[in-house]
Amino acid sequence: PPPLLEPLFPPQPGASPGFAERVRQHKVRLEWVRAEPAGLRGAVRVLNLAYEKAVSVRYTLNRWASCAEVPAAYQPAGPADGLTDRFAFLLPLGAAAAAAEPALEFAVRYRVAGAEYWDNNDGANYRLRGRQRLPPAGGPPQDPDSTAWIHFI
């Protein structure tokens, strides 16, 4: 089975205390991510500074030797606070994530009213590492002493 991507950061920053204030202060913040078979799915919260805005996610699978960028889509059923908007994204990792030791890094870009804001996890980028899925265990659990010469009853 393909490896799972394991975030090296809390996968739901939007659930942490003070999240709304961080969005107001920095204009853009990652809300949550989830590794799926199709790739990495997530949501971003941005401060609603103008009607026209663009949110995208720039990512790499090879430590920035090359990178790709995908647009995030506006979610009309977003937060009811009237101050922020939510955008959703999917990073299609495909065969690259099946590498022996996949690693993913990304940052979020928010362009609005002639300005550009980034959320790069306070300069560290959002990083995920690959971890092999364990195959389902078949049969009864193994006795750790099954290879011992003597078994006591």
Automatic annotation (TrEMBL):
PROSITE patterns: CBM21. GO terms for biological process: regulation of glycogen biosynthetic process. InterPro entries: CBM21_dom (IPR005036), CBM21_dom_sf (IPR038175), PP1_regulatory_subunit_3 (IPR050782). One of its GO terms (molecular function) is protein phosphatase 1 binding. Residues 20-129 form the CBM21 domain. It comes from the Eukaryota. One of its GO terms (cellular component) is protein phosphatase type 1 complex. This is PPR3E phosphatase.
